[in-house]
Design brief:
This protein has 18 helices and no strands. It is mainly alpha-helical. It has a single domain (about 20-415), classed as Na+/H+ antiporter like fold (Up-down Bundle), CATH 1.20.1530. Helix 1 (about 1-45) packs across helix 12 (about 285-315) and helix 9 packs parallel to helix 11 (about 265-275).
Protein backbone atom coordinates (compact mmCIF):
# COMPACT_ATOMS: atom_id res chain seq x y z
CA UNK A 1 0.00 0.00 0.00
CA UNK A 2 2.81 2.40 0.91
CA UNK A 3 4.63 1.49 -2.33
CA UNK A 4 1.46 2.26 -4.33
CA UNK A 5 1.10 5.66 -2.65
CA UNK A 6 4.73 6.54 -3.36
CA UNK A 7 4.36 5.44 -6.97
CA UNK A 8 1.14 7.47 -7.36
CA UNK A 9 2.74 10.51 -5.74
CA UNK A 10 5.73 10.22 -8.08
CA UNK A 11 3.47 10.00 -11.13
CA UNK A 12 1.48 12.98 -9.88
CA UNK A 13 4.63 15.09 -9.46
CA UNK A 14 5.81 14.05 -12.92
CA UNK A 15 2.43 14.96 -14.38
CA UNK A 16 2.48 18.30 -12.57
CA UNK A 17 5.97 19.08 -13.93
CA UNK A 18 4.85 18.18 -17.45
CA UNK A 19 1.78 20.38 -17.07
CA UNK A 20 3.88 23.33 -15.92
CA UNK A 21 6.26 22.84 -18.85
CA UNK A 22 3.31 22.70 -21.25
CA UNK A 23 1.90 25.93 -19.79
CA UNK A 24 5.30 27.60 -20.08
CA UNK A 25 5.62 26.55 -23.72
CA UNK A 26 2.08 27.74 -24.44
CA UNK A 27 2.85 31.11 -22.89
CA UNK A 28 6.06 31.37 -24.91
CA UNK A 29 4.25 30.50 -28.14
CA UNK A 30 1.62 33.11 -27.36
CA UNK A 31 4.34 35.71 -26.82
CA UNK A 32 5.97 34.76 -30.13
CA UNK A 33 2.67 35.05 -32.03
CA UNK A 34 1.79 38.39 -30.45
CA UNK A 35 5.28 39.78 -31.09
CA UNK A 36 5.23 38.47 -34.66
CA UNK A 37 1.90 40.16 -35.40
CA UNK A 38 3.21 43.47 -34.02
CA UNK A 39 6.43 43.14 -36.06
CA UNK A 40 4.41 42.43 -39.19
CA UNK A 41 2.35 45.58 -38.66
CA UNK A 42 5.41 47.74 -37.96
CA UNK A 43 7.27 46.30 -40.96
CA UNK A 44 4.35 47.12 -43.23
CA UNK A 45 4.18 50.68 -41.91
CA UNK A 46 7.97 51.11 -42.24
CA UNK A 47 7.96 49.37 -45.65
CA UNK A 48 10.80 47.01 -44.74
CA UNK A 49 10.92 43.17 -44.81
CA UNK A 50 9.41 41.75 -41.62
CA UNK A 51 12.29 39.27 -41.13
CA UNK A 52 14.44 42.21 -40.00
CA UNK A 53 12.09 43.17 -37.15
CA UNK A 54 11.41 39.53 -36.28
CA UNK A 55 15.12 38.87 -35.82
CA UNK A 56 15.55 42.00 -33.68
CA UNK A 57 12.49 41.04 -31.61
CA UNK A 58 13.97 37.59 -31.03
CA UNK A 59 17.21 39.13 -29.78
CA UNK A 60 15.28 41.40 -27.40
CA UNK A 61 13.06 38.60 -26.08
CA UNK A 62 15.93 36.10 -25.77
CA UNK A 63 18.08 35.20 -22.73
CA UNK A 64 20.56 37.99 -23.47
CA UNK A 65 18.06 40.77 -22.66
CA UNK A 66 14.50 40.10 -21.42
CA UNK A 67 14.74 36.30 -21.20
CA UNK A 68 11.12 35.73 -22.22
CA UNK A 69 11.63 33.43 -25.20
CA UNK A 70 14.18 30.67 -25.64
CA UNK A 71 14.20 27.25 -27.23
CA UNK A 72 17.52 25.34 -27.33
CA UNK A 73 18.85 25.05 -30.88
CA UNK A 74 19.39 21.30 -30.51
CA UNK A 75 15.90 20.56 -29.09
CA UNK A 76 13.48 18.38 -31.05
CA UNK A 77 10.83 21.12 -31.08
CA UNK A 78 13.23 23.69 -32.48
CA UNK A 79 14.35 21.27 -35.20
CA UNK A 80 10.70 20.54 -36.04
CA UNK A 81 9.92 24.25 -36.43
CA UNK A 82 13.10 24.76 -38.44
CA UNK A 83 12.53 21.89 -40.88
CA UNK A 84 8.80 22.30 -41.42
CA UNK A 85 8.90 26.10 -41.38
CA UNK A 86 11.72 26.32 -43.93
CA UNK A 87 10.04 23.68 -46.10
CA UNK A 88 6.71 25.49 -46.07
CA UNK A 89 8.27 28.89 -46.82
CA UNK A 90 10.21 27.30 -49.66
CA UNK A 91 7.04 25.68 -51.02
CA UNK A 92 5.36 29.09 -50.93
CA UNK A 93 8.27 30.57 -52.88
CA UNK A 94 8.16 27.76 -55.43
CA UNK A 95 4.47 28.38 -56.04
CA UNK A 96 5.30 31.94 -57.15
CA UNK A 97 7.89 30.79 -59.71
CA UNK A 98 6.87 30.77 -63.36
CA UNK A 99 8.32 28.13 -65.66
CA UNK A 100 8.69 30.60 -68.53
CA UNK A 101 11.08 32.64 -66.36
CA UNK A 102 13.20 29.62 -65.39
CA UNK A 103 13.63 28.77 -69.08
CA UNK A 104 15.35 32.13 -69.58
CA UNK A 105 17.81 31.95 -66.70
CA UNK A 106 18.45 28.21 -66.15
CA UNK A 107 22.13 28.43 -67.14
CA UNK A 108 22.81 31.14 -64.56
CA UNK A 109 20.90 29.16 -61.94
CA UNK A 110 22.86 25.99 -62.66
CA UNK A 111 26.23 27.76 -62.47
CA UNK A 112 25.53 29.93 -59.43
CA UNK A 113 23.99 27.05 -57.47
CA UNK A 114 26.94 24.71 -58.03
CA UNK A 115 30.14 26.42 -59.15
CA UNK A 116 29.04 29.60 -57.36
CA UNK A 117 28.96 27.88 -53.97
CA UNK A 118 32.52 26.61 -54.50
CA UNK A 119 33.74 30.06 -55.56
CA UNK A 120 32.15 31.77 -52.54
CA UNK A 121 33.42 29.10 -50.15
CA UNK A 122 36.96 29.33 -51.55
CA UNK A 123 37.19 33.13 -51.37
CA UNK A 124 35.68 33.22 -47.88
CA UNK A 125 37.92 30.40 -46.70
CA UNK A 126 41.02 32.19 -47.98
CA UNK A 127 40.00 35.37 -46.14
CA UNK A 128 39.28 33.39 -42.94
CA UNK A 129 42.74 31.77 -43.15
CA UNK A 130 44.41 35.14 -43.58
CA UNK A 131 42.22 37.23 -41.26
CA UNK A 132 41.34 34.86 -38.41
CA UNK A 133 44.46 32.67 -38.50
CA UNK A 134 42.41 29.49 -38.92
CA UNK A 135 43.87 26.26 -40.25
CA UNK A 136 43.30 25.97 -44.04
CA UNK A 137 40.77 23.13 -43.79
CA UNK A 138 38.86 24.80 -40.95
CA UNK A 139 38.83 28.09 -42.86
CA UNK A 140 37.39 26.33 -45.92
CA UNK A 141 34.81 24.68 -43.66
CA UNK A 142 33.69 28.13 -42.50
CA UNK A 143 33.46 29.27 -46.11
CA UNK A 144 31.34 26.25 -47.02
CA UNK A 145 28.90 26.81 -44.14
CA UNK A 146 28.02 30.38 -45.11
CA UNK A 147 28.35 29.96 -48.89
CA UNK A 148 24.70 29.12 -49.57
CA UNK A 149 21.90 31.66 -49.45
CA UNK A 150 18.75 31.12 -47.40
CA UNK A 151 15.25 30.55 -48.82
CA UNK A 152 13.51 31.18 -45.49
CA UNK A 153 14.87 34.73 -45.60
CA UNK A 154 14.72 35.56 -49.30
CA UNK A 155 11.29 34.19 -50.20
CA UNK A 156 9.47 36.41 -47.66
CA UNK A 157 11.47 39.47 -48.77
CA UNK A 158 10.36 39.09 -52.37
CA UNK A 159 6.81 38.49 -51.21
CA UNK A 160 6.87 41.94 -49.64
CA UNK A 161 9.17 43.86 -51.99
CA UNK A 162 7.98 43.51 -55.56
CA UNK A 163 11.00 43.24 -57.86
CA UNK A 164 11.07 42.57 -61.60
CA UNK A 165 9.98 39.01 -62.13
CA UNK A 166 13.06 37.34 -63.52
CA UNK A 167 15.42 38.96 -60.99
CA UNK A 168 13.29 38.02 -57.99
CA UNK A 169 12.67 34.50 -59.23
CA UNK A 170 16.35 33.95 -60.05
CA UNK A 171 17.39 34.90 -56.50
CA UNK A 172 14.62 32.81 -54.91
CA UNK A 173 15.41 29.80 -57.11
CA UNK A 174 19.11 30.07 -56.32
CA UNK A 175 18.35 29.97 -52.61
CA UNK A 176 16.38 26.75 -53.12
CA UNK A 177 18.88 25.03 -55.38
CA UNK A 178 22.15 25.87 -53.62
CA UNK A 179 21.35 24.61 -50.13
CA UNK A 180 22.08 21.05 -51.22
CA UNK A 181 25.45 22.06 -52.66
CA UNK A 182 26.29 24.03 -49.50
CA UNK A 183 25.55 21.01 -47.30
CA UNK A 184 27.46 18.62 -49.59
CA UNK A 185 30.59 20.81 -49.66
CA UNK A 186 30.37 21.40 -45.88
CA UNK A 187 30.36 17.72 -45.01
CA UNK A 188 32.93 16.85 -47.67
CA UNK A 189 35.34 19.38 -46.13
CA UNK A 190 34.39 18.16 -42.64
CA UNK A 191 35.45 14.63 -43.56
CA UNK A 192 38.84 15.99 -44.57
CA UNK A 193 39.09 18.04 -41.35
CA UNK A 194 38.30 14.95 -39.26
CA UNK A 195 40.72 12.83 -41.27
CA UNK A 196 38.00 10.47 -42.54
CA UNK A 197 38.13 11.29 -46.23
CA UNK A 198 39.47 13.45 -49.04
CA UNK A 199 37.67 16.28 -50.78
CA UNK A 200 36.88 15.55 -54.41
CA UNK A 201 35.28 18.15 -56.67
CA UNK A 202 33.99 15.50 -59.06
CA UNK A 203 32.48 13.46 -56.23
CA UNK A 204 30.82 16.55 -54.76
CA UNK A 205 29.28 17.46 -58.12
CA UNK A 206 28.07 13.90 -58.72
CA UNK A 207 26.49 13.79 -55.27
CA UNK A 208 24.86 17.16 -55.92
CA UNK A 209 23.47 15.87 -59.21
CA UNK A 210 22.08 12.76 -57.52
CA UNK A 211 20.46 14.66 -54.66
CA UNK A 212 19.05 17.31 -56.97
CA UNK A 213 17.60 14.92 -59.53
CA UNK A 214 15.97 12.76 -56.87
CA UNK A 215 14.59 15.85 -55.15
CA UNK A 216 13.20 17.15 -58.45
CA UNK A 217 11.61 13.79 -59.25
CA UNK A 218 9.94 13.51 -55.84
CA UNK A 219 8.66 17.09 -55.95
CA UNK A 220 7.41 16.78 -59.53
CA UNK A 221 5.61 13.47 -58.92
CA UNK A 222 3.94 14.68 -55.74
CA UNK A 223 3.09 18.04 -57.29
CA UNK A 224 1.33 16.40 -60.22
CA UNK A 225 -0.54 14.02 -57.91
CA UNK A 226 -1.77 16.87 -55.68
CA UNK A 227 -2.74 19.06 -58.64
CA UNK A 228 -4.69 16.11 -60.06
CA UNK A 229 -6.49 15.47 -56.78
CA UNK A 230 -7.56 19.08 -56.16
CA UNK A 231 -7.85 20.61 -59.64
CA UNK A 232 -8.77 17.91 -62.18
CA UNK A 233 -11.98 18.71 -64.04
CA UNK A 234 -13.59 15.33 -63.21
CA UNK A 235 -11.48 13.60 -60.58
CA UNK A 236 -10.68 16.40 -58.10
CA UNK A 237 -11.90 14.26 -55.20
CA UNK A 238 -9.87 16.25 -52.62
CA UNK A 239 -10.74 19.73 -53.90
CA UNK A 240 -12.50 20.80 -50.70
CA UNK A 241 -9.54 19.63 -48.62
CA UNK A 242 -6.91 21.49 -50.67
CA UNK A 243 -5.40 23.25 -47.63
CA UNK A 244 -4.97 20.02 -45.65
CA UNK A 245 -3.62 18.19 -48.71
CA UNK A 246 -1.07 20.97 -49.22
CA UNK A 247 0.20 20.73 -45.63
CA UNK A 248 0.42 16.96 -45.88
CA UNK A 249 2.20 17.11 -49.24
CA UNK A 250 4.86 19.56 -47.98
CA UNK A 251 5.73 17.11 -45.21
CA UNK A 252 5.51 14.17 -47.62
CA UNK A 253 7.78 15.78 -50.21
CA UNK A 254 10.48 16.62 -47.66
CA UNK A 255 10.38 13.27 -45.87
CA UNK A 256 10.25 11.19 -49.07
CA UNK A 257 13.26 12.99 -50.55
CA UNK A 258 15.09 12.78 -47.23
CA UNK A 259 14.37 9.05 -47.12
CA UNK A 260 16.17 8.70 -50.45
CA UNK A 261 19.04 10.84 -49.03
CA UNK A 262 18.14 13.56 -51.51
CA UNK A 263 17.47 17.26 -51.03
CA UNK A 264 14.20 17.68 -49.15
CA UNK A 265 14.23 21.43 -49.77
CA UNK A 266 14.63 20.83 -53.50
CA UNK A 267 11.60 18.51 -53.39
CA UNK A 268 9.30 20.98 -51.63
CA UNK A 269 10.43 23.81 -53.91
CA UNK A 270 9.67 21.78 -57.06
CA UNK A 271 6.38 20.69 -55.50
CA UNK A 272 5.52 24.38 -55.10
CA UNK A 273 6.48 25.09 -58.72
CA UNK A 274 4.21 22.28 -59.94
CA UNK A 275 1.27 23.48 -57.87
CA UNK A 276 1.83 27.11 -58.84
CA UNK A 277 1.93 26.20 -62.53
CA UNK A 278 -0.98 23.73 -62.53
CA UNK A 279 -2.59 25.42 -65.53
CA UNK A 280 0.47 24.52 -67.59
CA UNK A 281 -0.17 20.90 -66.52
CA UNK A 282 -3.71 21.01 -67.86
CA UNK A 283 -5.50 21.65 -64.54
CA UNK A 284 -7.58 24.64 -63.60
CA UNK A 285 -9.32 25.67 -60.38
CA UNK A 286 -11.89 28.38 -59.81
CA UNK A 287 -10.78 31.88 -58.83
CA UNK A 288 -12.45 31.63 -55.42
CA UNK A 289 -10.84 28.28 -54.60
CA UNK A 290 -7.42 29.58 -55.65
CA UNK A 291 -7.84 32.70 -53.51
CA UNK A 292 -8.84 30.67 -50.46
CA UNK A 293 -5.84 28.37 -50.82
CA UNK A 294 -3.50 31.32 -51.39
CA UNK A 295 -4.79 33.10 -48.26
CA UNK A 296 -4.24 29.94 -46.24
CA UNK A 297 -0.71 29.44 -47.57
CA UNK A 298 0.21 33.10 -47.03
CA UNK A 299 -1.03 33.09 -43.42
CA UNK A 300 0.62 29.77 -42.58
CA UNK A 301 3.92 30.86 -44.16
CA UNK A 302 3.87 34.04 -42.05
CA UNK A 303 3.35 32.02 -38.86
CA UNK A 304 6.27 29.75 -39.80
CA UNK A 305 8.41 32.78 -40.60
CA UNK A 306 7.79 34.56 -37.32
CA UNK A 307 8.58 31.43 -35.29
CA UNK A 308 11.80 30.74 -37.22
CA UNK A 309 13.27 34.23 -36.97
CA UNK A 310 12.16 35.13 -33.45
CA UNK A 311 13.59 31.84 -32.17
CA UNK A 312 16.74 32.33 -34.28
CA UNK A 313 17.25 35.78 -32.75
CA UNK A 314 16.69 34.39 -29.25
CA UNK A 315 19.45 31.82 -29.82
CA UNK A 316 22.17 34.36 -30.66
CA UNK A 317 25.09 33.82 -28.26
CA UNK A 318 26.56 37.29 -27.79
CA UNK A 319 29.24 36.21 -25.32
CA UNK A 320 30.61 33.78 -27.88
CA UNK A 321 30.29 36.26 -30.75
CA UNK A 322 32.21 38.93 -28.87
CA UNK A 323 35.36 36.77 -28.91
CA UNK A 324 35.56 37.01 -32.71
CA UNK A 325 33.52 40.17 -33.30
CA UNK A 326 36.00 42.39 -35.13
CA UNK A 327 37.54 39.66 -37.25
CA UNK A 328 34.08 38.27 -37.97
CA UNK A 329 32.68 41.63 -39.04
CA UNK A 330 35.68 42.21 -41.32
CA UNK A 331 35.36 38.74 -42.85
CA UNK A 332 31.60 39.08 -43.45
CA UNK A 333 32.15 42.51 -45.01
CA UNK A 334 34.58 41.00 -47.53
CA UNK A 335 32.14 38.11 -47.97
CA UNK A 336 29.35 40.55 -48.89
CA UNK A 337 31.35 43.06 -50.91
CA UNK A 338 33.89 40.85 -52.68
CA UNK A 339 33.03 37.13 -52.63
CA UNK A 340 29.40 37.54 -53.65
CA UNK A 341 29.99 39.98 -56.55
CA UNK A 342 32.84 37.86 -57.93
CA UNK A 343 30.63 34.76 -57.73
CA UNK A 344 27.69 36.40 -59.49
CA UNK A 345 29.78 37.92 -62.27
CA UNK A 346 31.69 34.70 -62.98
CA UNK A 347 28.47 32.66 -63.10
CA UNK A 348 26.07 35.08 -64.81
CA UNK A 349 28.20 36.78 -67.47
CA UNK A 350 28.78 33.55 -69.49
CA UNK A 351 24.98 33.14 -69.77
CA UNK A 352 24.35 34.94 -73.07
CA UNK A 353 20.83 33.56 -73.24
CA UNK A 354 19.69 35.50 -70.14
CA UNK A 355 21.09 38.82 -71.43
CA UNK A 356 21.61 40.20 -67.95
CA UNK A 357 21.73 43.96 -67.55
CA UNK A 358 24.15 45.75 -65.26
CA UNK A 359 21.44 46.94 -62.85
CA UNK A 360 20.10 43.38 -62.52
CA UNK A 361 23.56 41.95 -61.80
CA UNK A 362 24.28 44.65 -59.21
CA UNK A 363 21.04 43.81 -57.40
CA UNK A 364 21.79 40.07 -57.41
CA UNK A 365 25.31 40.80 -56.13
CA UNK A 366 23.87 42.59 -53.10
CA UNK A 367 20.93 40.29 -52.35
CA UNK A 368 22.15 37.06 -50.73
CA UNK A 369 21.00 36.91 -47.13
CA UNK A 370 22.42 34.28 -44.80
CA UNK A 371 19.88 32.69 -42.46
CA UNK A 372 18.38 29.46 -41.23
CA UNK A 373 20.23 26.87 -43.35
CA UNK A 374 23.79 28.12 -42.59
CA UNK A 375 22.77 28.53 -38.94
CA UNK A 376 21.60 24.92 -38.83
CA UNK A 377 24.85 23.70 -40.42
CA UNK A 378 26.92 25.67 -37.90
CA UNK A 379 24.88 24.20 -35.06
CA UNK A 380 25.49 20.69 -36.35
CA UNK A 381 29.25 21.30 -36.48
CA UNK A 382 29.22 22.49 -32.86
CA UNK A 383 27.34 19.34 -31.84
CA UNK A 384 29.85 17.18 -33.72
CA UNK A 385 32.78 19.06 -32.12
CA UNK A 386 34.26 19.88 -35.51
CA UNK A 387 37.59 21.76 -35.66
CA UNK A 388 37.13 25.48 -34.89
CA UNK A 389 33.37 24.92 -34.51
CA UNK A 390 33.05 27.81 -32.03
CA UNK A 391 34.66 30.25 -34.46
CA UNK A 392 32.50 28.94 -37.30
CA UNK A 393 29.30 29.30 -35.24
CA UNK A 394 30.23 32.82 -34.13
CA UNK A 395 31.06 34.06 -37.62
CA UNK A 396 27.93 32.40 -39.02
CA UNK A 397 25.71 34.31 -36.59
CA UNK A 398 27.57 37.52 -37.40
CA UNK A 399 26.87 36.81 -41.08
CA UNK A 400 23.19 36.18 -40.31
CA UNK A 401 22.85 39.42 -38.37
CA UNK A 402 24.79 41.57 -40.84
CA UNK A 403 23.18 40.28 -44.03
CA UNK A 404 19.62 40.39 -42.68
CA UNK A 405 19.94 43.73 -40.87
CA UNK A 406 21.89 45.44 -43.68
CA UNK A 407 21.01 43.74 -46.95
CA UNK A 408 17.37 42.87 -46.27
CA UNK A 409 16.69 46.37 -44.93
CA UNK A 410 18.12 48.03 -48.05
CA UNK A 411 16.46 45.72 -50.59
CA UNK A 412 13.60 48.10 -51.46
CA UNK A 413 15.88 51.15 -51.55
CA UNK A 414 18.40 49.49 -53.85
CA UNK A 415 15.69 48.11 -56.14
CA UNK A 416 14.26 51.60 -56.52
CA UNK A 417 17.70 53.11 -57.23
CA UNK A 418 18.36 50.44 -59.87
CA UNK A 419 14.91 50.87 -61.40
CA UNK A 420 13.89 47.27 -60.60
CA UNK A 421 11.01 47.98 -58.23
CA UNK A 422 7.45 47.28 -59.37
CA UNK A 423 5.19 49.84 -57.68
Amino acid sequence: MIEFKLHFKGRLMESSASLQLAKHMLLMFGAVLATGALCGLLARLARIPDVVLLLIAGILLGPGIFNLVYLPADSALNQLILIFGSSYILFDGGASIRLKVLKQVWITLLLISTLGVLITASITGLVAYWLLGMAPVAALLLGAVIASTDPATLVPIFRQVRIRERVAQTVMSESAFNDAMGAIVTFAVLNVALGTGEFSLSSALLELLRQSLLGIMVGAALGYAVAFSIAHEKYAFLAEYASVVTLMAVIGAYMTADGFQASGFMAVFVFGIMLGNQEALGFKRGQQENSQLQDFVTTTAFIMRLFIFILLGAQVNFSQMNQYLYGGVALVSIFMLVARPVTVLLCALPDRRAKWRLNELLFICWTRETGVIPGALAGMLVGMKAPCADIIASVTFIAILMTILIQATTTRWLARKLNLLID
